[in-house]
Write a structure and sequence with these properties.
Blueprint: H1 6-15, H2 22-43, H3 63-72, H4 80-86
């Protein structure tokens, strides 16, 4: 078996890091607004149509990572099975 080079180990560590950025902050703000609006309506017994958020970007741009990060920070909104899959 080949010895893994120090460079590859460092690159793997970097890929495993998440760095907050403007797009993530915007997604968090939008998600929080919609979540609070939805919870307020439900607390009053109102069942309004749910709204969605589209995350658009090129292949490999981090869309799935962005969504997973957001959802793992809000575990109370996920079904237990879905949360286990996100981890």
């Amino acid at each position: 078996m080949n010895k893994v080079s120090d460079t590859h180990i460092r690159l793997a560590k970097l890929r495993g890091q998440f760095i907050r950025h403007a797009a993530y902050e915007q997604l968090c703000d939008q998600f929080d607004r919609q979540l609070q609006r939805r919870r307020a309506a439900l607390s009053l017994g109102l069942f309004e149509e749910a709204r969605g958020i589209a995350i658009v970007g090129a292949s490999g741009s981090g869309k799935s990572t962005l969504a997973a990060r957001l959802l793992t920070q809000n575990p109370d909104i996920l079904q237990p099975q879905a949360y286990a899959l996100m981890r």
